[in-house]
Task: structure prediction
Amino acid sequence: MSKAEASLMNRIVSLSKRRGFIYQASEIYGGLGGFWDFGPLGVQLKNNLRDAWWHSMVECPPMGPDGKPLSIVGLDSSIIQHPRTWQASGHAEGFADMMVDCRETKSRYRADHVICARYLSADAKISGYISGQDGDNTKDQISKKADKLGRKKGIKFDVDLSELIPLTSIPVENHGRVIGPDASKAGTLTDPRAFNLMFESHYGVLQTDETKVYLRPETAQGIFLQYKNILDTSRVRPPFGVAQVGKSFRNEVTPRNFIFRSREFEQMEMEFFCPPEDGMMWYEFWVNERMRWWEEVAGCKKENLFAHVIPEDEIAHYSKGTTDIEYRWPFTEPNFGELEGVAYRTDYDLKQHAKFSKTKLDYIDQESKERYVPHVVEPASGLTRGVLLLLCEAYQYDESRPSPEWLKIKPSLAPTKLGIFPLMNKDGMPELAEKLYMDLRQDYTCQYDPKQSIGKRYARMDEAGTPYCITVDGETLKDQAVTVRDRDTASQERVAIDKVREYVGAKLS
Ligand code: ATP
Result:
């Protein structure tokens, strides 16, 4: 298959590997499902997205409705917390997906990801469901499977692909008529059962139930646990926010779609504490603000973002409103999939932790002497998923370019800002280019590269999403000027060496 024919997602995955953005974790041992490593360019891109979020949240928070900057502080809490944390938060009990196992193939599936289509045999003697796994080619999977099974059994299956039904919507008493996604006969799937997604470990030397701990499945709870210390030791007063970026772990049953759903990932979460009567107002504020941020700061096209208001009967019992900010991923297209959730969580978390820890977590307003438990609005997004969005948004394919595949990453987020080259590795060019590199690398991530043809070097930089390349050529020694090439237009401009810093500064700001 040629590059142009491969699916967009496959092309993004292979470019990510080839250029050192993202590798499979433990690859030399055959990999480990749901774990990924960020290579030299990937870690830089991820850090840039993280820093942009941190800047917009903590260092320069948005303006509130009163025209004054909001008050948001940072936190870095432990991955492992007291196990009671997860009882209070509900994760110990409720953080589970419904799973089914296949007795025939020993595969395990998320019940809502087993997608079924009704079938009848041509002589209408047997009927039931043929299933496949949820994805962009589910119908294809099911019809190929029907053909294959039909050939093997000498029957013609008449499959109704017009209606696909998740296993969870089929009454359990009928599951015996479902042929599992990889099975060759019906009735091999177990009844759905809950499977807790938290990774377990132990602290200290003894491995008993008392020493059992969990790797956090979200960063948010660490914020609730330190809410009181933050109130007591800093000058924040409601409304205020606490922001945190860090790793979270979920033993996802079906990790997939590259880094979209992995077992170890990073989140960027902020809990905004406010007087109860203002909760709804702040919820709407944060939905709008986060939509704006993905568009203006992360550079996402407006038409690829969607604010999905979750219907009341689907949101968590304690929430008074949840909106998922969704992105049109290559594997959900034309539909959208979650990028960030903004939830109005009321006073649920603080009240739960107050109850379980027997600590007062209410707030007393010094002026009005009013005592209350603040309400919380939470914008919770995935940093790892955000990196995937940047790659999907940036990916371009154009046969007429030095590299047909290239990344149009927003310059402020690009892993490398400048490529600096001597046109040829002789005649004083490398010395000058190196001097420029030594000067500019103080302020910008630069890459110095003296090897290969200039076309190949441009191509490499385009694939890495580097917005500008600066070339020192034979004329530079005479006119004290260099060529600056723009990644997006491939146009070149002659700029005096002593004006280069100013020139790229204006472009990259
Ligand atoms: P999903 O429905 O996709 O499983 P969720 O609703 O469980 O996500 P939240 O608990 O709201 O997700 O977590 C907030 C954000 O963390 C998500 O919007 C997503 O960006 C990110 N996230 C959650 N689970 C994963 C994962 N397994 N891999 C990568 N990112 C994740």
Remarks:
- The pocket of adenosine-5'-triphosphate is lined by residues 218, 250, 252, 261-262, 265, 267, 338-341, 380-382, 384-385 (CB under 6 Å).
- The chain is about 30% helix and 30% strand.
